[in-house]
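Good morning C.,

I know you're traveling, so I'll keep this short. The sequence:
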Amino acid sequence: MVNYIEIFNEQGMDYHTYRTLVDQLLLEGKATGDVTYDLHYTKMNVQRMTRVDKTATLNSDLLETIHHLKGKYKLLVITEGWCGDAAQIVPVFNKIALASPDKFELKFVLRDQNLPLIDAHLTNGGRAIPVLIVLNESGDQVLATWGPRPHILQELLKEWRKETTEMPVLAEKLHGWYAKDKTQHTQAALNVLFTALEK
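The tokens, ready to paste straight into the viewer:
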């Protein structure tokens, strides 16, 4: 049984702490994961997160939805610094929390340090990230989950994997899609998620 509130309170990092951890490990020649190839991905992902931080803005539909929420929620995100999808998406979670700090408390935890947590939220049997877990205000109830990427991209990835299994090729297609989309499908999916919370 996963103790969400304990993980949230004891291991959860705010966005600034998470970003600082990824940056600091990179300076030391390390990544949040255990394998050395993660360094290349982490370096690219720091650039991606910085770009999304600077350029993405929440659209009016999502802003209206979160401003009309009556409840207060804890947002727990499972992520890793080496994960390409996470780099494109976690800054959006941060922008949502910043847009309504009276409604959201946002914390990040590392997947590989929380295997029972990710194993409770598998995607097609895999430990795909990021995963957003929406908890009630007291943190003892899971109200909704989302991840690891917008549905349309999940479907595209299935098609791309029929053509190739080479990760550099898939990563190029994936990040090309994110660059063109400018977080809009991610925002649309999160709008649906938050709209459903209080229905």
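Safe travels,
E.
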